[in-house]
Design a protein that fits this description.
The chain is α/β, with parallel strands linked by helices. The protein is built from seven helices and eight strands; from the N terminus they run H-E-E-E-H-E-H-H-E-H-E-E-H-E-H. It has one domain: Alpha/Beta hydrolase fold, catalytic domain (Rossmann fold, 3-Layer(aba) Sandwich), CATH 3.40.50.1820.
Length: about 250
Amino acid sequence: MSSLPEQCCTLPPFKTDYKPVGEIFMIKVEGQDELEIYSTGSSEAKTALVAIFDIFGMHNNTLQGADHLAKSSGYRVVLPDFFRGQSWPVDNIPPKEGRPFLNKWIQSVGSWEKVRPGLLATIEYLKANGVTTIGAYGFCFGAKKLMQGAHENLFKSVALVHPSFFQPEDADNVNVPVALLPSGGEDQAVMNGYWERIQQKPIAKNSIRQDFLDVHHGFASARSNWDDPELAKRARDAYKVMEKFFHDTL
């Protein structure tokens, strides 16, 4: 697996006084502890988006983005806490233990084997509560999780925002439309290689790429800054791209 982008290891998240407007509840996961879910938007919505956060977990900047997307799209948006409250500390970037330690930590607490049961339980919960169509979006580490599960076709379409751990071959098992939103913090050769492979697949006609090369890695999740007019605009731009993509593909 490829490594984290440089900016992921050097740029801390922005602090915020934002108060999330959604609700939190627990669901059961077979073979694991209960999973906390943040849910925002109408509980009556028939379409839902599952969001997978970055290494900072249920950070309020990420939840603010979910609130924004739910309000603008009319979808229900849910964020499962796959880290069970043990996300990477916001005050430990750059990691004092070194980058290899951070990589090892992510592969441990955020392995596909640990994420998959909770992801399946979240999908089952949504379906049991009236949701008929489900898409997903992932930031950083979360985008990689969507690629690791791509062969299972769990979602009707997926958006990948400033991805980490990516490699071009991640495109090979994708069978649903993809929205790729790289920032200026990712390896563009990898992003281009991934996108070239997507273009060779039938899903290409419904897939989109929108570059945000003028902003840093994490600009739409924990490293977003909704108090900065320009950064807030670029975050909203990214969510607008995702909203249109999901409206077109779900």
